[in-house]
Hints:
CATH topology of the largest domain: Rossmann fold
Amino acid sequence: MVKPLDNKFSAQIKQKIDLKTKPLGALGQLECVAFQLVNIFSQHTSDAEFLSKKWVVIAPQLIVFAGDHGIASQGVSIAPSEVTGQMVANFAAGGAAINVLCRQFGWQLSVVDCGILNVPEADLGVISQRLGNITQAFHEYEAMSEAQLEQGLTLGARILTLQSQKGANVYAFGEMGIGNTSSAAAIFSALSGLSPEETVGKGTGVSGEVVIKKQQLLAQALVLHESKLTNARNILRCLGGFEICQMVGAMQQAARLQAVIVVDGFIATAAAMIVIALSPNAQQYMIFAHCSGEQAHAKMLEYLNVKPLLNLGLRLGEGSGAALTLPIMQSALALYNDMASFEDAQVTQVVQGE
């Protein structure tokens, strides 16, 4: 069960932010980030500890889940499924964008094989949590079995629990899987009722003709599974990917542990939507990193009524947008911890409207 946030300190947190030496609200979203982080971090804090404690991000973890998708055989991506395994090897070797960003900012990176065609060599350090080699093509079959779904949710929760032993209080999630924008778009359509024309984008950069083909395949899938798409679990089972499934399990567990969840782009937001449908309180622990260049991601964020921190036109995946939020979170907390109040600095308080 995911507990709702206990807002016992919320008035004090807001007052401390409002009384900093600045006009009210002048630090914009940094104030919102500071409020959310301190509110989450202080869940198990006594009154005395709250007054004296400085709040920091501890051992931030970024987990990349990788999985192959049967729908990729229909030519919905510019790359074949084999590229998933090649990119996982690139992650393991430290050469991908997410490796660079994690090194730059101090994320601790883990890579999980949830079920890809090309199994990584054992000595690469990739965590094996395989549910199979590849999902079924969801326009013809259910993407995964009930047993695979349950195992995936369990394994996702398990990896998060293992990472939590490092003392982390912030978790970000990335993904790799050729064909997974099709899966995310299908999940979004099933949850929101929007048509594939509204949810399908160019993914890795396919042509207009391929976009139309993706829309047709998704429409076919939604009709095929219509009677089963009545709850979030079935939507995930029929339309999801092995990596999305394990990401859902990990996000759920992070919310159960009352930790911060940093949601990356289009695919990660599809996973977050499933988590929220299963456990509505989980959204209170989520920070939405960015609005990606995938055309339906803005609609997802609007559907969830959330405002992302960044809008850089990213559409890489891997958790790249989530990685960029770490210095923002750290800056928000530094301002909360160390910026003087009007009283401390003996500055005349600025009154709103003057």
